[in-house]
Design a protein that fits this description.
Length: 573
């Protein structure tokens, strides 16, 4: 028998007074409550529900809410209620049944006495609320959605929190001056750069839209930002999130539409930044390593626009000017989220450019490294292993990765079957590959097969946007351009003939004729840059290292080149 109870009442002064009279714990016990109207929801915790409801009744931002649900439990204490509040906010944010009205600065993930026992109760509370129609999905289903993975309602780890706080405190000082600043958040795949960027955007909007009837959580590391004198600085600022990749940009736009505080906040291409009617006060740039330099762009019209924008912003079509320069020209304060080891095309800004930006940020104490692995259960040990595995100095054997699965397959069909099994168990399990086969099926209505190995016939992703969640994804193969920035539970990585071991040298080599990303191997004629075989090898190994970092629970490998397959077999056993 469950120990908790959920009390239901109307969100009116009379109903609150009646509850205060008949429920002894209503005004003197730690509780968690929901305020909702069938569309919007607010989740809170308090030690005095009577006073808190009366405060909320005075809030213009909550006057449209109609119902209250209060979770009582004799075992609750302040820490447990804060934890349950965060737990429910995260799940409501990822489920999509309601639009969540909460700020994100109080989301916690702190340990406390008997937390594991409380977490079991929280899951029971979730199931009871789900039975009452408050959630449409189960917890595992919610956790597999983009709405959950890209939600601003995340508990930041210590280094993420310090980065956000330091950047925000810097803005409190800098916004009072004409200063122009650049901060850099740098981290490997899976360290949560995108989450930090989205969290920053929500925090900026929460400050700008502060509801004075809301309590400021004194335990939150961001509480001082909400004090009078600081929060006013953020009112009316022009802010935006820049995301170079189309698929990730559209996924984030979908999340922003479901978060009231972020609704209408622009998610921009670099071209839209450059063409905006007014300059920006703050721009956060996710996947900044995918910003481009002057080169032939994806479409001829974009190549033409590139020159037009550069001339308009700088007075001349200087071929050394890149999209990062555009952003600096249009924004007073810039936050870059980057990992130069994820650059995969010659048109991407050269790592040397970012090296200078990073060095300057370090000198100005605006560089924030993220080291804690948040995605892959194998942790940093797995990422380092994956990096050296595709090098000319591979490890002698795999490290102890605990329950993280790494397996080499000799049969592609068998690997696909394993991916299907894992998808049935956990969802979000997909085949991915390097761009080592032509995209023959790209034309709408085509029945052609793109990849044929071991009698296994596969096609590239039909959808270029949100492919991972598409209906046919399990039977297709995703490329770097559809999975970079996303999480999978299990990734089946096909290492194609574009990466091989040269028999004469025994070293890794790029096979240009088997690499079909035309813009991934093209020379940059505009800047007189030749994409050498060494450059191409760097791009291709970067592609595979990114693909091998997508799986949170496991990575499976199939290798076309027999010499490379044998090398990996010796390491993996």
């Amino acid at each position: 028998m469950t120990a908790f109870e959920i009390e239901e009442l109307s969100f009116t002064a009379r109903s609150v007074s009646d509850a205060d009279a008949r429920l002894p714990r209503f005004s003197n016990w730690p509780v968690v409550y929901l305020l909702e109207d069938g569309h919007d929801i607010y989740v809170g915790e308090t030690g005095n529900a009577t006073n808190r409801m009366r405060q909320h009744l005075k809030s213009p931002a909550k006057e449209h809410l109609r119902e209250v649900r209060v979770v009582f439990d004799d075992r609750f204490n302040g820490s447990a209620c804060l934890d349950l509040e965060s737990f429910l906010i995260r799940l409501f944010g990822g489920d999509g049944r309601f639009d969540v009205l909460n700020r994100n600065d109080g989301i916690t993930n702190r340990d406390y006495y008997q937390r594991e026992e409380y977490l079991e109760t929280f899951r029971e509370v979730f199931e009871e609320l789900r039975a009452r129609g408050y959630f449409e999905r189960s917890i595992p289903q919610i956790e597999n959605t983009d709405l959950f993975k890209l939600s601003p309602y995340k508990a930041l780890n210590t280094e993420q929190g310090i980065a956000v706080l330091d950047i925000m405190e810097g803005l409190v000082d800098d916004l009072r001056t004409p200063a122009r600043t650049t901060a850099v958040i740098q981290g490997d795949p899976g360290t949560g750069k995108t989450i930090v960027g989205i969290y920053l955007m929500k925090l900026l909007r929460d400050l700008a839209q502060f509801d004075p009837t809301d309590e400021i959580d004194g335990d939150s590391m961001f509480s001082d930002l909400f004090l009078e004198g600081s929060r006013e600085l953020f009112e009316g600022l022009r802010i935006g999130l820049v995301v170079p990749q189309k698929s990730l940009r559209q996924s984030i736009e979908g999340v922003f539409r479901r978060v009231p505080a972020l609704r209408g906040t622009p998610v921009l291409t670099p071209y839209e930044v450059a063409d905006a009617e007014e300059d920006f006060d703050i721009l956060v740039v996710d996947e900044a390593h995918r910003l481009t330099q002057r080169a032939a762009q994806a479409h001829g019209t974009l190549t033409k626009r590139y020159g037009e924008i550069t001339r308009r912003l700088f007075g001349e079509d200087d071929y050394t000017i890149n999209q990062l320069d555009w952003i600096h020209a249009r924004s007073r304060h810039t936050v870059l989220l980057l990992d130069t080891a994820q650059s995969v095309r010659p048109a991407d800004i050269e790592p040397a450019v970012f090296d200078r930006v990073i060095a300057q940020a370090r000198d100005e104490h605006r560089l924030y490294p993220l080291d804690t692995q948040m995605r892959v259960r194998g942790g940093s040990a797995y990422l380092e292993f994956a990096r050296t595995l595709l090098s000319d100095e591979p490890p002698e054997h795999a490290p102890d990765l605990e329950d993280y699965e790494v397996e080499l397959f000799d049969d592609l069909g068998a690997m696909h079957d394993r991916i299907r099994e894992r998808d049935a168990e956990t969802g979000l399990s997909r085949l991915v590959a390097g761009y080592a086969w032509k995209w023959k099926s790209k034309k709408k209505g085509s029945t052609e097969v793109d990849i044929e190995i071991d009698g296994c016939r596969l096609r590239w992703n039909v959808s270029e946007v949100d492919w991972i969640a598409s209906r046919t994804a399990l039977e297709e193969v995703g490329s770097i351009h559809t999975v970079q920035g996303y999480d999978l539970n299990y990734a089946g990585v096909i290492i194609g003939p574009d990466l091989r071991i040269a028999p004469a040298t025994g070293k890794l080599a790029a096979d240009r004729k088997h690499y079909f990303d035309s813009r991934g191997k093209a020379n940059n004629r505009m800047r007189g840059q030749v994409t050498t075989d060494e450059d191409l090898l760097r791009y291709i190994t970067n592609v595979y290292r990114v693909l091998m970092s997508r799986g949170m629970r496991g990575t499976y490998l199939y290798v076309v080149d027999p010499l490379l397959r044998e090398r990996l077999r010796r390491v993996l056993g």
